[in-house]
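INTERNAL AUDIT FORM
Audit reference: QA-55
Scope: verify that the stored structure record matches its stored sequence.
Auditor: D.O.
Record contents follow.
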Amino acid sequence: MLIINDGNKLNRIIYLIVIFIFGCDNVAKLEVSQKAKKRAQELTTNNIVESAELFNKPSSNKNLDRNFVFLDSSRTGINFKNIWKPDPIYKGQLGNSFIASGVAIGDYNNDGLQDVFLSRQKDGGKLYRNLGGFRFEDVTKEAGISSDSMWSTGVSFIDINNDGWLDIYVCGFDSPNHLYINHKGNYKESAKDVGLDFKGASVSMAFSDFDRDGDLDAYLLTNRLHDTDSTMNVKTVKNNKDPYVVVPEHREIGYFIKRPGRVPLLVNAGQFDHLYRNDGGKFVDVSIESGIGQHPYYGLSATWWDYNNDGMPDLYVANDYMGPDHLYQNMGEDENGVTRFKDVVTEALPYTPWFSMGSDYSDINNDGRMDLMAADMAGSNHYRDKVSMGSMSGPNSEAWFLNFPKPPQYMRNTVYLNTGTERFMEVAYLTGLAATDWTWTVKFGDLDNDGYEDVYFTNGMSRDFVNGDLKDRFRVITNNDEKVLKESDLWENEEPYRLSNMVYKNLGDFNFKNVSSDWRLDYYGVSTGSALGDLDGDGDLDVVMNGFDESTRFYRNDLVQNNSIRVTLVGKKSNSQGLGARIEMDYDNRTKKMLRYSSSSRGFMSSSEPVIHFGLGDHTKADRVTIHWPSGNIQILENIPSGYDYTISEKNTSQKIEDKKAQMFKKGESSIANIYHYEKYFDDFKRENLLPNKLSQLGAGVSWGDIDGDGDDDIYIGGSSGFPGRIFTNNGSGNFSNMFQFVFKVDAGYEDMGSIFIDPDSDGDLDLFVVSGGVECNAGDKILQDRLYINDGSGNFAKAASGLIPKINSSGGVVAAADINKDGKLELFIGGRVVPGSYPESPRSYLLTNSGKRYIDATDNIAPEVKYSGMVTSAIFSDVDGDNWADLLVTYEWGPIRFFQNKSGKLVERTNDVGLKGKSGWFNSISAGDVDNDGDTDFIIGSTGYNTKYKASSINPEILFYGDFDGSGKKNIIEAKFEKDICFPRRGLGCSSSAMPIIKEKFPTYHDFAVSSLEEIYTEELLSSADKFEVNELASGFLINLTDANGNISFDFRPLPRIIQASPVFGSSLCDVNGDGNLDLYVVQNFSGPQRETGYMHGGISQLMLGDGAGNFKSVSAEESGLVVPGDATSLTTHDINDDGSVDFLVGVNNGKYESFINQTNPDSYALRLPDFPRGKKYIGSKIWVYYNNDSVQLHELFAGGGYLSQSAPIIFIGNKKNIKKIILQWPDGTKNEIHNYKDIGGISSL
């Protein structure tokens, strides 16, 4: 009798018997059409591809199961567990990344099956050979891998010597790293021989041919070698001017961070990372000479990718805690032949994660540009978020750090959207991927083969080190214990912090859906390294996951059967794996495309299979595959059937790719392109602790008008408190001069908001009205008085005499002008923005009428309902119903879009009657234009957008309560949200109790606070007695005018495309950019005002959308448009700086440099500058109807004020005159002219 006591041997014998009976070659293959088979044969016969192997037939009915199936050790033959049992000297690593373990997938023996290497804290890890059918055997010793004493971490399969056989690189903690050279299936450890036997805190080695010489170079990512208590022994350089410089030998133990207003902080250091260049098989450390340098941070992932598509591998390095992330742009060789790198993270990224962990790249929107995601530890639900916010308040708070670095670091995931320019957008909240708990692995892959790459996350930690209650408890114990207990000793007795893994399906249009439970990838435990690969050869991606004190988990992909194509690259002139290649696929009759990039280590401590995977949905072929090899060769393959795994060898080619199209706009070079707006720092939150956003940085307004009567338009640039406004005069050749105004210097203490050029004294020149605002004062302060400046006719201004305008001491925002009562004089609407120190109370708004001698307050008579209508953000006058009476639309923060209909000179609110009832938002701006060419005016509403932690709907709105909640007599702000129909406070225990100490008395722990509803914390009685505000719409959108022929007014609000929702929209303009006769849309974005836990809303760079004349818009990439505004863009005005008849833009930026853009589209455009007409002195309120040959009619109105703090030049951009039938101009008094000469004149013309 044969007795076998070893379970692994028994499994192996069973597998060998199965293979002997059935044979590896008898696996059923996927069925494809005869046409596909014929084409695959042609590809191999004609040496277009080296081989084409049909996928295996799925082992289960995927259309029935539709999920991932966990296969335990009895199914796979792999019984592997990363057991945490380190030497006692390493127990301090419990809170470090080395609790984790990695996964590598690759075909080490070239049998066509993907094998697996697993790392762990003991024995150096194991190699498992794939026997087929998801069965594996341990071949570690058989293959020559021996490292029993090694604490292995990150692992990679890599062909380091270009011989076509995958070698294995294994990183170690406090032990030399190992490189196993593959000798046709047998390995020999050779790290020391090639110079890669670094000993220290190695996390992973990321390989790339960064100098494109055909062999692989490497970047070694490291972390902290010493425990947290080691900083107590750090020494500084003596007798140094800066006493906070650490001695060289301690630079990898601790370093100082300079804090604002406080002494520098000593923090734990990680080891220096190392960049190795492969010099003929020997690796040389070139970290210093390459520009990478030495940075003592906690590295957690390093990702090679080519973000700018220049063929040179760039590098993203994600660093934990206070270490900044790096984006190293490959600058190519310098004059000495050294490949140099430049860290462009500050210029390229708006912010990064605070505790950066895993990272990965993907073209998430299939636009041909590679995007990137970096993970953090943000809680995915209210409870986790609030329990982990302990360190965000109090004397030991680290909240100061959030906005301190450049770029800022926030505790949330980031998704960087590649714009094809030097600046990325950030869209984590927009995509739904901002918070995935304590995330280690980020893995992109098309898991359901639908043509969009999905993303998978592993979660968990050895202990819950961010739990505020545990940290507070341990701090008390260690401070009081006479034996000086170490905090690390206390953590050892706690349970692991188990969390569920997550997977999100990419739905397209920047939208991901959590399908973790549906796909059964929501395992609850401590999962760390993970990799993707097709382990059963059926054409989809399976998942392997390693963990902490966890058995390895294998998941077979049994999702719905969609088509796919897989490509293995064989480099010849390039490195053998083609690492660094960019692969583009066109399909669906070349209407769709995908992009992949070949790289090694991705995610965290792991490397997926070295195979390029394309899902195709129900499409059966790729129309074209273009391979951009690292060597510069470009290989194009046509008509590639799905269902095959192709091996493609590099060929020397002379293929060239078409040059990029010229950009639509270029940056202006005149003096207005160098205007700066400045702000003095003011701490809004000191006065109102729980204020959601700063209110002291809302300015940067712009107004255009011909102040000196020379026939061209000049500019007023609003100032801020301490910085005067400025006039720039136009010299007629596109250049501007700063015209000093003494009165502006005298009034430098005012905070300028809205401004407009008007002629209230009817003397034929433009005077200037400026609204005063801000919160750097008390309510009613005289510094809030609005101002009227009188023009002497030559562009010199003096302050209007007292009494010409009424006393207006409300902190205002906007001003808009129109002749409301048809008396030939302009009325002014002045919107109150805020009550300083009493947000969100409603400020006073005004309606001023011109008596002929002075402005008087006529609010009660003309528009009583606007008086205390809310916090006004923007306003515009427009004849909505075509009755030749100017109506008023006003936007609000924590309020609706209000519509005031002009009834014979009186403004009557009809908001609830015209389709706007119940819609409330944080609306920023309103601008106007006829987007659907139906002869009436539609509107663009700028709002917060979707790329924020706030989520609002009619069912679950965002809520704000304002009242006295602690009996102190002082009103406080409480923001609230809904989660699973329960209302919770938005702010955490620390912030709330710092404003209202009674909260801490009632809820002493973070747990108590986190599990309590809003009513349980503040009581229903107190909440009901408070003022309540709601927001149910966050989107920027169209307000489509549906007024019928009988004058029945109706509006339809339609959200703008999701790409615009990536950041708050302020300035906006509807104008014909490309001269096709249809109005296009340009918006400018971003806001640095949110309180620091919310973080800056800097996801956008501005966005151009081309209109089709039917109300539909198509986004234009920044790479094509040339329009990039990374700062806090506020005002947006249009003008024609070079008199070519095409619209140009000037963008105001709060506390930053203005941006000027000149139109380069060169359309056969036509523009009307109304002041050039004989009767054009009074142009505000004019209308222009453009009748096109297709019988559509486009209406233009000339406004005074609108958008965001904007008054554009008085120019109407008509578009291509060839398509025009006639143009009718109506002046404010109702008289009309038909314009006849437009067909013979280019650029700007007049009657």
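Auditor finding: record pair retrieved intact. The mean pLDDT is 93.
Action required: none
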